Amino acid sequence: MTVDTVELAAKDPELVQPFAALGLEPDEYARIGAVLGRRPTQTELAMYSVMWSEHCSYKSSKVHLKQFRDKAPASDRLLVGMGENAGVVDVGAGLAVTFKVESHNHPSFVEPYQGAATGVGGIVRDILTMGARPIAVMDQLRFGDADAPDTARVLPGIVAGIGGYGNCLGLPNIGGELVFDPSYAGNPLVNALCVGVMPRERIQLSAARGPGNVVVLLGAKTGRDGIGGVSVLASATFDAGGGPAHRPSVQVGDPFTEKLLIECCIELYDAQLVAGIQDLGGAGLTCATTETASAGGSGMHVDLERVPLREASMEPHEILASESQERMLAIVTPADLPAALAVAQKWGVDATAIGEVTDTGRLVIDWRGETVVDVPPASLADEGPVYDRPVQRPADLDLLQATDPSTLPRPSTPDELRATLLRMVASPNLCDKTWVTEQYDRYVQGNTVLAQPEDAGVIRLDEASGLGIALSTDGNGRYTRLDPYAGAQLALAEAYRNVAATGATPIAVTNCLNFGSPEEPEVMWQFAEAVRGLADGCQALGTPVTGGNVSFYNSTGATPINPTPVVGVLGVIDDVARRTPMGFPTAGTILLLGETHEELGGSEWAWEEHGHLGGRPPAVDLRRERALAEVLIGGSRDGLLLAAHDLSDGGLAQVLVESCLRGKVGAQITLPADADPFRWLFSESAGRAVVAVADAPAAEFTGRCDAADLPWTSIGTLGGDSLSLEGSLDVPLDELRTAYEGTLPCLFD
Amino acid sequence: MSPRIGVVTFPGSLDDRDAARAVRRAGADPVALWHGEADLLGVDAVVLPGGFSYGDYLRCGAIARFAPVMTALVDAAGNGLPVLGICNGFQILCESHLLPGALTRNQHLHFRNRDQRLRIDANTTAWTGAYEPGDVITVPVKNGEGCYVADPATLAQLEGEGRIVARYVEGNPNGSLHDIAGIANEAGNVVGLMPHPEHAVDQLTGPSEDGLGLFTSVLKHLARVAA
Amino acid sequence: MARVVVDVMLKPEILDPQGQAVARALPSLGIEGVTGVRIGKHVEIEFDGEPDLERAQQIADRLLANPVIEDFTVRAG
Amino acid sequence: MARVVVDVMLKPEILDPQGQAVARALPSLGIEGVTGVRIGKHVEIEFDGEPDLERAQQIADRLLANPVIEDFTVRAG
Ligand SMILES: Nc1ncnc2c1ncn2[C@@H]1O[C@H](COP(=O)(O)OP(=O)(O)O)[C@@H](O)[C@H]1O
Ligand SMILES: [Mg+2]
After folding, report:
1. What are C39-50's pLDDT values in tens digits?
2. Contact A123, A115 (CB under 8 A)
3. pLDDT of residue A1
4. Is B97 annotated as catalytic?
């Protein structure tokens, strides 16, 4: 086969190249010519097309994401910030934690099991790349209506894929989200989060430095799978038929190889045998070679025919664009090479020297004696196009915000209230998620202290001291649709509240921004507002954004999904033995912390009972959230809390049902004389939590609330085997349990 | 000096660290054994931990069976060395014919992780002496292929010889015949158990401490045979 | 290229939940008249020399199939 | 008894972790000379009437294989 070379490119400048088919704009193509001083070779063209794709270049989001850095609150914990594969924070005791959430939406629609599985594999490699041992995963899933045929097609496979890959890697799954909404009907969201831990001094960076150092490809052979997956598949809008616009090639995951890769890399790190390392994710070798060379400010030379292939007939551009999974690129000094190869062999991981670091400042790739690539690596990795796309407030937003739920009919008799409560706890978004979470291993590694359905997952890092972390992620597409700035802050506030509810102190944030097409000004406005809200919120809460991911083009035909920023908050807890669980104890007093206003805009009640989406989302008060968090953390530290559960979707009713069922104990609720039971039960005001305290220290705890200027209400006592609301309700726990637990099995078994 | 209990790590073993932790909690010294070495380092007993050895591709345990360490283990087990196979370890023991029957795909086709109630039916094995027959314990189960099957003759023999070590109660999580959660070989030194006792040794990280008994049992057993 | 094909099926007396699940799903696709579905493994082995049925037989016997629950057939592909 | 056999295999360009794991294990069984192993599904569908290749094709298309990563063949068994 004859291949286009740098020499030919110079000789024959007029060759017509298929840049448009590769997704490049005419001016982008012209820019490549300017960078190179000649037309690109076909191989170079393929490399630019994948690296300058939305997915790899963040060309539409960059100008907004920089707010996360510009507005980042001062933090002495931040060891590695945005821009690396994942951020790293100091959790004390010489340990560093890295975490990040990423999307795999489109592949999971096309091949649910493998799409979701490789999504987990990809985020785990990002964490491994930082030098950390992955210690847990979480998954954030959004589907169309629970009873929609396509939900039945994709949900079981996606759940099985998340479990299949994570379970096989030995990573406990400690939480996630499961949301049903018709806006995701043709475009489910599959986000996955991984968290890892390492000794501070083991942090790895992805820079290729030191001319003469060897470039080693670790892991799976390179095949034709996932070629163009990033630029074509991951950024392709689905056509109206719901099918993918292009028949993509999807990757099949091999978790066993990834498990060996993890053990191999960690042994390499501990033996200090790598000078730099980078995972191969989107854009495969192209991304890994250009990013490491660019980060090192060095040059690199690669002999492409040394790359182990599954199919000998692969051409240079295919080898460079392939997204074969379970691969890493390591930079190793010649002196360390034999030892490094020995470690790889011990773990049965293929390791091949494919090139070396140079001082030329160019990435030069040879294939069968010809030079097929000769480029400045930064032009691909860092100097891609940047767009400040037009934004426009959605035309329908005023109307949407004006159609307030206040006029919707409400339960007016005790019987209607009771029926509403039972329907709400049985609704797909509020019901028990065990059908899904049972498919995930929560115990492996033996350090899981809290996992789903608790407010946050809690993992022990150090057996001796009990030092641990807590993690929660949240996102509400309906709130964000009604007000993207507030919606993003509500997602942040809820995750922050969840972490604090367990007794952990929130310290850092990651996020995955799932939106429609950036080329639509109304979507771009939603994105800009959400990023601004999240950046401002993180500043107010003192929790810096350490990393994340953007997924655009999430729409079916012409309709974009509800804008869905998924926000993850990491907390640290000095002794996991004092974590606060959500299940009520058999006796004690129930306190409601915070203020309950009539806030039903975007609420679960309005949606579930009336299919209504309108009005304003609950008001955000981040100073209140901070005060609430401090009280919850202090109460945990000083052993004043028997249980705590944060309020969010479904309001107080949902929290009482969940904490009673979890604790297998009833509760007798007495609301303030002037309280409207419906509003108190189903309003979704933010900044609230329910706690259980023993009668004795109750006064001490409420004293702290007063001191923190945090309103509290004593709303009842624990005991018995029913949930009762004085004067209106009395529902046996068994009846609640049947309603709560029955929904998903009946939908998906 | 306290007994030394080997924990084998195959490529893809996952619960090996947890098994070692349980061994330590029971008062023994865990010894790491490597799949590639046909050497048991003179340990007093061996645990084959859970996980996905070789990815559990093809069939769970089918490839691990051919690891060098297994040839040594099969001989030693024949000479009475106490061996406990947990989950994937149980599957490996069946594939190696140290235990009869096989573990197949869960009837509902899902991986299932839940806190499972188990009844100990035989306390005559090397690994269950610390329990009373009829004891009901809570231990996590987590597997995708935990459905125990064997031909009627084998099942009758297991029942007849009291070799069904533990049964699922209050719900069978995978469709196992006769609700079998664990079985023993004729001599009682080799036990396979689908649920994970090593994840029930500490209230902080497990549903109970009921699983510790398997590890203390083997210490009792070793003390007895030493005396 | 010398290929040998090994088909591995669960013994008839062993329950095949995967096959049953497919069979159960058929009516909802409007497909009638199917009395049973069994799902096994289809294994293609490439030898560098001649297609070697004997070695394939060995591989199937020792590795590909578990005689306790599975039967297999070997044929040149 | 009218049987139709559907064999489902991953497309050649798609990684087959199972087959790869088996191929890597063979040397430890003392078996050499195998250049590759691919593992797919072997599905046997029983029809009450005639073996119905067309319906089998439908079943394979909609339930047994995902055309994005898999190919299949249908034959009377
Ligand atoms: N929404 C976001 N918030 C903060 N950082 C982000 C976001 N999206 C992407 N990033 C950062 O941009 C960099 C590139 O993102 P990505 O392509 O996902 O990295 P990788 O290829 O390692 O997965 C990463 O450092 C990532 O953390
Ligand atoms: Mg990365």
Report:
1. 999 999 999 988
2. no
3. 53
4. no
CA gap A165, A252 in Å, rounded: 11
The string of pLDDT tens digits covering residues A440-490 is 999 999 999 999 999 999 999 999 999 999 999 999 999 999 999 999 999
Nearest bound ligand to the CA of residue A530: 1
Q: Residue C1's pLDDT is what?
A: 62
Residue A573, both tokens: 């807890």
Cα(A125) to ligand 2 centroid in Å equals: 7
C-beta atoms surrounding A569 within 10 Å: 31
- Alpha helical stretches, state H, D7-74: 17-25, 53-59
Q: What is the ipTM of this complex?
A: 0.93
> Ligand 1 pocket check: which of A290, A549, A570 to mutate, most ligand atoms within 8 Å of Cβ?
A549
For residue B170, give every residue at least 6 positions away whose Cβ sits within 8 Å of its Cβ, in sequence order, or none.
B117
**pLDDT-based confidence at A196, cuts 50/70/90?**
very high
The structure's pTM equals 0.95
Mean pLDDT calculated for residue range D62-74: 93
CB A226 within 8 A of CB A310: no
CB contact under 8 Å between D22 and B55, yes or no, is: no
Q: Which amino acid is at A565?
A: P
Question: DSSP assignment of A376-398, as one string?
Answer: -HHHHHTS-----------TTHH
Residue B50 corresponds to which amino acid?
A: G
Q: Which of A59, A79, A82, A105 to mutate to test the pocket of ligand 1 (most atoms within 8 A of CB)?
A: A82
Distance CA A600, CA A604 (A): 8
DSSP codes joined into one string, A630-689? HHHHHHHHTT--SEEEE--TTHHHHHHHHHHHHHT--EEE---TT--HHHHHH---SS-E
Does the pLDDT of residue A647 top 80, yes or no?
Answer: yes
Taking phi first (over 0 means left), then psi (-120 to 50 degrees means alpha), and beta for anything else, what does residue A406 get?
Answer: alpha
Averaged pLDDT for residues A516-529 = 98
Secondary structure (DSSP) of C38-77: EEEEEEEEEESSS--HHHHHHHIIIII--TTTEEEEEEE-
